[in-house]
Design brief:
6 helices, two-stranded antiparallel ribbon, binds uracil
Length: 209
């Protein structure tokens, strides 16, 4: 059973309102996404595995938990995922970043893969798979499928906005992967855009149309 966690927090909601606003400019959208991604990274990273290690402070020896190696990695679903990957990477620069390129066919709304570059030891790492919009679930499901095919066993999927249709699709194929989102929206429109959503995340991040 897929767990869906909605990160309820006044600051998360406040930043999301800025991202949803059609009058928010692309530079402000990027800046706010960076801030929101950074805030979201902390509860997401609370799922990371740690192990105790010995540290000698200037005062004495102590035991302190550190991240298990190989370090977790962030995997961005191109291109909108990069906005979140940058924010997560700012909180955890130790994490290598992988990329999976998916492009939605404008007629069928089905995502097709065009690129994949992942860190080594993917089967050993905890993976934070990021894409701001879980719409049809096609891109996220396929990306998670690629990761599993390469041996990945521990994946978390993180988005800003999830549609019920996307959760359902993802759930059918990846019941083992928890979803963490800033918002659960109403539904998809006839073009598979999320309502109320925030429009095309990639275009809004990069100022393209
Ligand atoms: N991708 C987006 O960027 N926005 C949506 O609403 C759906 C998919």
């Amino acid at each position: 059973m897929t767990h869906v966690t909605v990160l309820e927090h006044p600051i998360v909601s406040h930043k999301l309102a800025i991202l949803r606003d059609e009058n928010t400019s692309s530079p402000d959208f990027r800046k706010t996404l960076m801030e929101l991604g950074n805030i979201m990274s902390w509860p997401v990273f609370s799922h990371l595995n740690v192990t105790p290690t010995q540290v000698k402070t200037p005062m004495e020896h102590t035991t302190q938990s550190v991240l298990v190696k190989p370090y977790p990695c962030i995997v961005s679903i191109l291109r909108a995922g990069n906005g979140m990957a940058d924010a997560f990477s700012a909180s955890l620069p130790e994490a290598p970043i992988g990329y999976i390129g998916m492009q939605r066919d404008s007629d069928t709304h089905i995502a097709e893969p065009y690129f994949k570059k992942l860190p080594d030891q993917i089967e050993e790492r905890q993976i934070i798979l990021v894409d701001p919009m879980l719409a049809t679930g096609s891109s996220a499901s396929q990306a998670a499928g690629f990761l599993k095919k390469d041996g990945a066993r521990k994946i978390l999927f993180v988005c800003l906005v999830a549609a019920p249709e996307g959760i359902e699709c993802f759930h059918q194929q990846h019941a083992d992967i928890p979803i963490i989102t800033a918002a659960l929206d109403r539904k998809l429109d006839e073009n598979a855009y999320i309502l109320p959503g925030l429009g095309d995340a990639g275009d809004r991040i990069y100022g393209t149309e």
